[in-house]
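Explain this one:

_____
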Amino acid sequence: MTVAALIVAAGKGDRAGGAVPKQFARLGGKAMLAHSIDAFLAHPKIGIICLVIGEGQKALAMEALGDRKVTAIVTGGAERHDSVCAGLAALEGLSVTQVLIHDAARPFLSSEMIDRLIGALDKADGAIPALPVVDTLARGNDTLGDTINRSGLLRIQTPQAFRYDAIMTSHTVWNGGIATDDAQMARAAGYEVAIVEGDPVLEKITHAEDFIAADRRLRAVRTGMGFDVHRLERGKDLWLCGLKLDHDFGLAGHSDADVALHAVVDAVLGAIGDGDIGSHFPPSDAKWKGAQSSVFVDHARALVESRGGTIEHVDLTIICEAPKIGPYRDEMRARLAALLEIDIGKTSVKATTTEGLGLTGRREGIAAQAIVTVRI
């Protein structure tokens, strides 16, 4: 038995927007179609992989594949069933007995799903994954119309598995116009198509917001913590969270000694496992003398972006007896959001005292602690 995977990736993906068709757009560090290819390559029962692309997409496909090896890359047609036909034709002569036809726009394909579909072909000519419709359905345009009985209705997914000879015959005899689904063609040709349990993560990526949700699913959430303390000295400028505050005392340090931003930078670096502020900006280096700490924040943010990550949230606590942080809190949040290029809703600035205890309680210094969440 030779099982082939036929991945349909010939669409234009206009609804998703972007500079390239959605199947070639980056998702979790690689092209979307590469996720499906990797799933089939890793499965021991898949012996052949055929990729169907659109006219003029060969260069994009080769870039997306990288060093991944597929059996064939063929050019599809104007409609989905034309592309599937081209892929099925490319499998002729390769002793294929079963084929799984899959849309590249469904990247989260599990090994369990592949097993489920192949197993179902022991008793049926075809098999499809499906999920029950759980939402209320209704007709309507600008106003709500009649509801529709959802009993027995299913949401059909891919891959769809078939005996190779059955689906070839189904495509050959099809005369029902544009077909968006191979299973309906098999049924029209008289073949039995079994239903297996679908997978909620196999939802099709169609719109730009679908990409955002899919990317978040792929990336890990990591947390970093930063802590810093600086001594107070009379007559120095006091910089806190990127703001110059009116105060009789300022913080001493090699740079502007913004203890709040230093804690944030250490938290960001901790989240991506890249040392601390001292390893990137050593105090022994004269060029950082008197430097604005915003430079350090820019550097840490750029490191996150270079790894394909995003800063999800920052929680900053400033520990001091004076000055009072409350009057500056909103401005500090806005400044922090601007420096990290995130929404202000993803920032939190708090203040506390140590009830007169320790160096902060004696007003000898100011400390700050930050926790940063990064998705990467």
Observations:
- The chain has two domains: 3-218, 221-375.
